Amino acid sequence: MIFLLIVLIISIYLICDYYIKNYWYKDIQGPRSIPILGSLLHIKDDAHLVFQRDSKIYNDGKLAKYWFCDVITIALFDADLTREVFIKNHEYVNSRVKSPTLNLIGNRFRGIVTADENYWQFHRDILMKSFTGRKIKTLTNSIEKETIEIISFMKFISKSGQLFSTRSNFMNFNSNIIFDYVFSRRIENIYEGANEEQLKVLKAIRDLFEFLALFEIQNYTKILQPFYFIYSKIFGHPSDPLKKIIYKYYKEHCETIDIDNPRDVLDSIISEYRKVNGKEEESSVIPITNELILAAVETNSTTMEWFTLELCNRQEYQVKLYNELSKVLKQSPNESNLINLSHRPLTPLFNATLKEVLRLYPPVPFGVSRLTIKEFKIDNGRFTIPKGSQIIQSLYSMFRDEKHWSSPNEFKPERHINNNESQSNNWFPYSIGVRNCVGMGFSQDELYILLANLVLNFQILPPFENSKINDTPIFGFSFRPNEFKVNLKLRQ
Ligand code: HEM
């Protein structure tokens, strides 16, 4: 009898769940959902391609509705509509999805990337003040110093006839800069191999990235969430090792801080926090700094990998870029013989190439999901976006949409120079609106200085003569190529 009752309850639940997912919120079409999992199986593998396909099927290519288990999800396929949601209606979409993963990383949504509607504005203001309160020159110095280090390592590798591993070295480069900027903790000789303590830090960052797959069931199924929390309490969470390290840095900073003369971003955040609210300092400052590291390292490293890969497969562009860079350095030389930010306005082709790489391979191909805190209408009232929806920007399909880009799958940096696509406001790999990427300027400076000096100093060749490096993307937390090595030939 009890068994029959249980079967009956489960059956009713499944029928209701199926009905809600497929027959409610009917003004936005999407693929059919099954009970419990919703549309998760539909988008699980190569979601960027699934969204690209769906953008040709549903709602005139503007958006589509999916169910990620219990969470109604709207994927935006159209750049104009994305602006309408993220700029015009920004106050309704400034929260993040309340998933257990974001909860645990962000200390109950108290970080910056993970911050919900209660913390976001407050933490964003603190962070912006901390960035602008520091002299930006310090960051540029740090990037230039690290670039000299890595270029000298590349020269060593090149002379010794070894191949250059792109992923590990770019990760080391980016972690060293952000650790220096945020904690004043640069790892000496990182490219030759760090010491045990430093390796622990690098491992903590990498392990967390390995773990951070997107669209996991436990993040979207309410009934599973308590088990996930209990499991993480007992066995630990992949974000714990990095947080432990950052806790140590935080304590050291607290002991030695001079509030009026902050040494680094961590000092600045602590000072700003103390000005407004001393109460939750530790539980907020640790996730904020933790998430700065997470947001910075993977995205920039991925972009560096794609840029190197594309140029390695296109020797003709390397020649063009080399000619442009060497000419400007001759025109305005400097002591270090380094391309720096003052050269940027004089290198239009290089700038366009970087833009083209970010268009074809946006490192965060779906943006970072937002959560709606109120129902609202878009597209002249045609679509209602329900409260509690997860909003995804399908950047990959938008950046390859014929509506906005000619021959969208082709690598054509020139499209960004002096033609009708060059002024396009449909290029936003760093997202748009008031909650866009905080690190956009930081990222652009780092990418420019490192990659320009790479092209200036070396010819980038594939490991085997006349071969091409595989450019099929791997879809995970970010959007990266298969790990690859290159042969760096020193230019004379
Ligand atoms: C190629 C490099 C990068 C790309 C493509 C990128 C892209 C993005 C995107 C799409 C978002 C989501 C914004 C939204 O919710 O609409 C974001 C957020 C964020 N990014 Fe980046 N990012 C990059 C580099 C960086 C760097 C270097 C830093 C740190 C210095 C950084 C820090 C952040 C932070 C803190 C947020 C959260 C902002 C907030 O929620 O208010 N990013 N980024």
UniProtKB/TrEMBL annotation:
- What GO terms are given for molecular function? heme binding; iron ion binding; monooxygenase activity; oxidoreductase activity, acting on paired donors, with incorporation or reduction of molecular oxygen
Subcellular localization: Membrane
Classification via Gene3D superfamilies: Cytochrome P450
Residues reported in the UniProt entry to bind heme: 437
Annotated organism of origin: Dictyostelium firmibasis
One GO term describing the cellular component? membrane
Cofactor(s), by name: heme
What the record says about family reads:
Belongs to the cytochrome P450 family.
Identify its membrane topology class. Single-pass membrane protein
Protein name, per record? Cytochrome P450
Keyword list, A-Z: Heme, Iron, Membrane, Metal-binding, Monooxygenase, Oxidoreductase, Transmembrane, Transmembrane helix
